[in-house]
UniProtKB/TrEMBL annotation:
GO terms for cellular component: nucleus. GO terms for biological process: tRNA N2-guanine methylation. Residues 77-91, 116-126 have a biased composition (Basic and acidic residues). Its EC number is 2.1.1.216. PANTHER family: N 2 ,N 2 -DIMETHYLGUANOSINE TRNA METHYLTRANSFERASE (PTHR10631), TRNA (GUANINE(26)-N(2))-DIMETHYLTRANSFERASE (PTHR10631:SF3). Residues 62-126 are annotated as: Disordered. The keyword Iron-sulfur does not apply. This is tRNA (guanine(26)-N(2))-dimethyltransferase. Keywords: Methyltransferase, RNA-binding, S-adenosyl-L-methionine, Transferase, tRNA processing, tRNA-binding. Pfam families: TRM (PF02005). Coiled coil: none annotated. Belongs to the class I-like SAM-binding methyltransferase superfamily. Trm1 family.
Amino acid sequence: MSSSSTTTSPPFPVPDGFKLHTENNAHILMSENEAFLNPVQEFNRDLSVACIRTWSEELNKAKDAKRAQARQKRASRAKEELAKKRQRVNESDAIDIEPESLQPSESTSEIPQAGSKEDVQVESSAKPEEKFSYKITILEALSATGLRSIRYAKEIPLVKYVLANDLSSTAVAAMKRNVELNGLGPSKELEETGSAKQANTHLGKVRVNEGDACALMYSHRTDRVDVVDLDPYGTAAPFIDAAVQAVKDENLLTEELAFPITEVYP
C-alpha cells in the first residue's frame, strides 16, 4: 500500500499563513512556525498503517475463534443439562407409575421425547449471536502534527480510537486543529432520555493529550492499550519501559529504528 501526498488543489479553504499537506485521505495544515513534519517519513507511515491494519485483522480473527469456541461450549452444556432434565423426568415418572397402570395408555405420550416440542422450544429460545468486531486502541506517544494518528483513525477500520500525545503546547494546538479538520474530534449529540433530550459528548476517534510521554504511558498501566507507537527524534530507549507497561500482553509495540534502542540517549 502506498499513499499519495500533495500540497495542491485543497478540498477546502486554507487559512492565511498555512499550507495544506495531504496523505491519502488525511489532511493537515502546516505553518512554518509550528509543529515539525518530515515528508521523507511518508513511506514509514504507509508501512505502519499497513502493518497495524493487517495485525488488527488477525487479532480480530483470533478473538472471533475464541468466541466461537465459547459458544460451542455453552451450547454443549445446554444440551447436557436438557438431557439430564429429561432423564430425571423419566426416572420420576417411572417411580410414580402404579403396577396396574403399566399397560400402554394415552398418558404415556406426555413424557418428553428426544426431538419433542419441548426441545424445539428450548432451541428456538436461544438468541442468535450478534456480529462482533474487536476494535483496537492506539497510543501515539510523540505525535507532533498528529498526521500519523489521523491516518490510523481514517485508514484502519478496526480502530476504536487513537490517543495522540505531545509535550509541546504548539504541537498540541496543531494536532487539535488537524483533528478537527479531518472530522475526528469530540462532538456533542442530542440523545433522547425519556421525554427529555440530553447532550452526550463523544470524545472523538483521535483524542489529543498534552503531557510527558512516559508519564502518560505509565498512567495506562491499569487501562492498557492494544498498540503503542513510538517515533522519537532519537533513540527510543528512554520510553521503552513505559511503553511495555502501557501495552496489553501479546499486543503490539512499534518503533522507528533510525536509532538503535540500546543507543545512549543524548
